[in-house]
Amino acid sequence: MEDCIFCKIIKGEIPSEKVYEDDEIIAFKDINPEAPVHILFVPKKHMESLLDVTEADADLISRIYQKINDVAKDLGIDKTGFRVIVNCGEDAGQLVKHLHFHLLGGKKLGSKLIK
Ligand code: AMP
Ligand code: ZN
């Protein structure tokens, strides 16, 4: 997708602080972190939102959650806890129209909604 900021990060056209990458998934630090750990997990295939996910993506979505799990353990926040957020559409405040999963942790996140 030409004008998609995350597609540009995937292509290396915009720099990012990469935490993980494989053929299908990239994870990088959020540029405007809301917690000590704030990492975005992004499928390399451009999908606008959760609404684009179908059964054909079952393995991909499962792998994203496994990688979130691995990174949370690597960073030690498996012991303290963490939150995974997917914003979908306007009311959720989805700013970037490329599916992504926020991993947040490293502090007490409280019970308030993320946005
Ligand atoms: P959302 O509101 O769920 O669409 O979240 C988009 C997230 O992308 C926000 O938390 C932004 O801070 C983050 N973001 C936007 N541009 C960049 C970038 N170039 N590098 C890293 N994170 C970004
Ligand atoms: Zn994209």
Quick description:
This protein is an alpha+beta fold and 115 residues long. It has helices at 5-10, 58-74, 77-80; strands at residues 18-21, 25-29, 37-43, 82-85, 101-105.
Protein model, in words:
It contains 3 helices and 5 strands. The chain has about 120 residues and is α+β, with helices and mostly antiparallel strands. It is globular and about 35 Å long. The mean pLDDT is about 95. The protein has one domain: 2-Layer Sandwich (HIT family, subunit A), CATH 3.30.428. The longest helix has 17 residues, at about 60-75. A 5-stranded antiparallel β-sheet has the order 1-2-3-5-4. Zinc ion binds near residues 1, 6 and 7. Adenosine monophosphate binds next to loops.
Which helices and strands occur, and which strands form pairs?
Layout: H1 5-10, E1 18-21, E2 25-29, E3 37-43, H2 58-74, H3 77-80, E4 82-85, E5 101-105
Antiparallel strand pairs: 1-2, 2-3, 3-5, 4-5
Residues 5, 14, 16, 28, 30-32, 40, 87, 93-96 line the site of adenosine monophosphate.
Q: Give me the secondary-structure category.
A: alpha+beta
* Silhouette: globular
* Residue-averaged pLDDT: 96
In total, how many domains does the architecture comprise?
Answer: 1
CATH architecture descriptor: 2-Layer Sandwich
Task: Give the SSE order as H and E letters.
Answer: HEEEHHEE
Across the major sheet, the strand order is 1-2-3-5-4
Helix proportion of residues, in percent? 10-25%
Highest-level CATH class: Alpha Beta
Ligand inventory reads: adenosine monophosphate, zinc ion
Rg:
14 Å
CATH homologous superfamily assignment:
HIT-like
Query: Strand share of the residues?
Result: 15-25%
* CATH topology type: HIT family, subunit A
- The number of helical segments is 3
Q: How many β-strand stretches?
A: 5
| Uncertain residue ranges | none
Distance between the termini: 27 Å
**Major beta sheet, specifics?**
5 strands, antiparallel
